[in-house]
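User: Could you go from structure to sequence for me? I need the amino acid at each position, not a summary. Structure tokens:
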């Protein structure tokens, strides 16, 4: 009975992680992780693979480095950093606990999830007339990467496993979903995964079913060329959302030029930031905001991503972060190559290793031109696949463990250590979600005119996650509104305090600085010590430096400059 609940819980975890990939919400992320843990606990029915491997150490090191640099070396702290680490490590632990015996059950859940995404994408294309489907995600590239994490292993199983023909309808649906997404990077990644899988299967002595091999090649070719056909056909709905028809074609080179501009800007940021700790997780957004003249193709477009995860990780997490990322990409290939042909490996273990590596390679290659390592559901699927491969490697016994399983007499100490780490991790993850919940409650109360409850919610949110600038900013806007509508000097003081805290929490964000300028300029009579014109102009100059392409920021700076000049002329 309990084990029957595992699959729905795991599917729900993937679905909520997908929603959280499109709508960045710590509440979604926390719910997904909770469901993931519950589903994995119910699914387990075999002893987990024990012992520490170099791959496991690399996964944990990347997660720990991400969290540490975000807390202590990031001028623009973001709550998404610990959750990305949790999705990677949590997925890895789930895969390790699942092992090769339960890998098929876990893969079945992923297949159902991928089919749901593909069907949604096909509905967007057929019913809504979108030129590039994206399913639940924001971009078609994310849909392509998520589908490939399931499609690549499915193709490997279809060609190499005796029962693989059962996957034919699944493969057809997933290829159709990939076709309507029209992601060049996804197709290139799928081709690279197929090439690596073929070489590894040969080394492992796995013989493909020739008929099914040719069918797979034909289906992939049809799926890859379908977007080219769609690009020359008129869109079914002229007003449909999405990219214009013909976006898949590379004749104009526009996409390449945009990528190169981002790469050049990111590399300039790498040279200007710390090689040890980087510039901070998700700091590329602020680099682009402050350097738009260097990327003219993005003069009116914002993005958080370099579209090359390896370059972005080097920028944001430094050389240690990039080394860990490269390790979780390269080590699976090394492990699979070493253990797949191992004489003690069973067919099931070899097949698991080959299929898992297909998914891993697809995302690793796609990360060269897009951003799957920054998408929660992709990170979760990738981490789980890593864990399954790691478990297969341990079961086969083809590598040396960094640390063997602890003797029974140390079990209590080991469990106590795990409990301590889990408690700290839970605290780090729960507090941002609680702050978001309090802030959402406050915003709802503010809209309904319940000022006291709104004030309570905003102040609670600020204290629950004081590192997040957004909650100070929300509170500042609330108190500024109160000060503007009532003769309450205390409200103006609270607004100024909140805006100042927001500026200190994120040294790269211009929004709270702009609000603080407006507060001191428009409600100076409500403040005990309002800033003078020279100070306001200094704040405005800083805002222009942070967001030079924002016309409102520049207009405010020019207005204050004229005001200061007039004051000097009057004297």
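Assistant: Here is the amino acid at each position, in order:
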């Amino acid at each position: 009975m309990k084990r029957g609940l595992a699959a729905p819980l795991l599917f729900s975890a993937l679905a909520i992680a997908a929603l959280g990939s499109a709508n960045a919400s710590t509440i979604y992320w926390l719910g997904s992780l909770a469901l993931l843990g519950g589903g994995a606990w119910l699914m387990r029915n075999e002893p987990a693979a024990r012992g520490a491997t170099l791959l496991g150490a690399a996964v944990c090191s990347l997660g720990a480095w991400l969290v540490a640099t975000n807390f202590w070396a990031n001028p623009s702290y973001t709550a998404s950093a610990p959750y990305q680490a949790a999705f990677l490590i949590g997925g890895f632990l789930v895969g390790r606990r699942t092992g090769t015996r339960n890998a098929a059950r876990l893969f079945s859940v992923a297949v159902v999830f991928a089919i749901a995404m593909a069907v949604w994408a096909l509905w967007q294309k057929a019913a809504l007339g979108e030129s590039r489907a994206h399913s639940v995600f924001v971009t078609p590239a994310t849909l392509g990467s998520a589908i490939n994490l399931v499609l690549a292993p499915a193709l490997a199983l279809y060609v190499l496993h005796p029962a693989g023909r059962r996957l034919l309808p699944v493969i057809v649906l997933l290829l159709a979903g990939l076709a309507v997404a029209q992601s060049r990077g996804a197709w290139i990644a799928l081709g690279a995964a197929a090439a690596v899988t073929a070489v590894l299967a040969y080394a492992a002595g796995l013989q493909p079913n020739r008929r099914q091999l040719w069918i797979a090649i034909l289906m992939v070719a049809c799926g890859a060329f379908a977007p080219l056909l769609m690009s020359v056909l008129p869109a079914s709905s002229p007003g449909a959302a999405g990219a214009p028809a013909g976006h898949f074609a590379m004749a104009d080179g526009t996409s390449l030029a945009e990528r190169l501009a981002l790469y050049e800007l990111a590399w300039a940021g790498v040279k200007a930031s710390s090689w040890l700790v980087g510039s901070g997780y998700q700091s590329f957004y602020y680099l682009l905001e402050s350097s738009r003249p260097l990327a003219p193709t993005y003069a009116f477009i914002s993005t958080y991503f370099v579209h090359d995860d390896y370059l972005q990780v080097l920028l944001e997490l430094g050389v240690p972060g990039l080394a860990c990322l490269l390790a979780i990409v390269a080590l699976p290939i090394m492990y699979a190559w070493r253990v797949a042909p191992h004489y003690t490996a069973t067919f099931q273990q070899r097949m698991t290793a080959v299929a898992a590596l297909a998914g891993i390679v697809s995302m690793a290659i796609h990360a060269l031109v897009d951003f799957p390592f920054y998408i929660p559901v992709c990170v979760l699927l990738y981490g789980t696949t890593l864990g399954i491969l790691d478990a297969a490697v341990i079961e086969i016994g083809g590598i040396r463990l960094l640390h063997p399983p602890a003797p029974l007499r140390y079990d209590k100490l080991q469990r106590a250590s795990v409990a301590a780490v889990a408690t700290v991790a839970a605290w780090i993850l729960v507090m941002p979600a609680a702050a978001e919940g309090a802030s959402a409650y406050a915003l709802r109360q503010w809209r309904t005119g319940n000022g006291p409850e709104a004030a309570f919610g905003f102040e609670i949110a600020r204290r629950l996650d004081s590192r997040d600038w957004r909650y100070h900013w929300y509170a500042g806007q609330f108190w500024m509104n109160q000060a503007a509508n009532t003769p309450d000097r205390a409200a103006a003081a609270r607004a100024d305090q909140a805006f100042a805290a927001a500026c200190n929490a994120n040294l790269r964000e211009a929004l709270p600085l702009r609000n603080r300028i407006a507060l001191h300029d428009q409600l100076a009579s409500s403040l005990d010590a309002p800033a003078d014109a020279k100070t306001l102009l200094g704040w405005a100059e800083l805002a222009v430096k942070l967001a030079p392409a924002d016309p409102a920021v520049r207009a405010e700076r020019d207005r204050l400059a004229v005001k200061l000049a007039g004051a000097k002329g009057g004297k």
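One structural detail worth keeping in mind: The longest helix spans residues 411-447.
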